[in-house]
Design a protein that fits this description.
This protein is about 55% helix and about 0% strand. It contains 6 helices and no strands. The termini are far apart. The model has no long low-confidence stretch (mean pLDDT about 85).
Length: about 130
C-alpha cells in the first residue's frame, strides 16, 4: 500500500514539473524589436542579408534621418514612438544586432539574445 502511495506521489511530482516547464509564450513579447528588424530586413537585398556591415548600415538608414549615428535624429518615417525608442536602443549595439541577424537567426530569437545586453528590448510593446 505504501508503494502505491509513493508511486502516486512521484507521478504527481513529475506532472507538476512538466506542467511548470511549459510556459505559455506571450505573442506580444519582443513585438517592437521584431517589427524594427523586419523593417531593416526589407531594406537589405537578398545577397546582402549575410553581410554584417550592410546590416549595420541598414539599421542606420532605417532608424536615423541622416543614416549616420553621430548626430542621432530619428527617421521621420517611423510613425510609432516605440519604433523610435527601439532604434535608439539599437544604435549603440548595431554590431551585436548584426551578428545573429546575419546568420539567419529568427528575429524573435535575435531580440531575446539582445535582451541580455539591454533588458528593455523585449519589454517594449505597442499600444492596443
Amino acid at each position: 500500500m505504501y508503494i502505491n502511495i509513493f508511486a502516486f506521489i512521484v507521478v504527481l511530482a513529475i506532472l507538476q514539473v512538466t506542467l511548470a516547464k511549459k510556459k505559455v509564450e506571450d505573442p506580444k513579447e519582443c513585438e517592437v524589436c521584431v517589427s524594427v528588424l523586419d523593417g531593416v530586413d526589407k531594406l537589405l537585398p537578398k545577397e546582402k542579408k549575410n553581410d554584417k556591415l550592410a546590416i549595420e548600415k541598414a539599421i542606420s538608414t532605417y532608424c536615423t534621418l541622416s543614416g549616420f549615428g553621430s548626430d542621432w535624429k530619428p527617421n521621420p518615417t517611423l510613425a510609432n514612438p516605440k519604433d523610435v525608442k527601439m532604434c535608439y536602443a539599437f544604435e549603440p549595439m548595431k554590431k551585436t544586432v548584426s551578428i545573429p541577424f546575419s546568420t539567419g537567426m529568427p528575429k524573435k530569437k535575435v531580440c531575446k539574445r539582445l535582451q541580455k545586453d539591454n533588458p528593455d528590448i523585449c519589454d517594449m510593446r505597442y499600444r492596443k
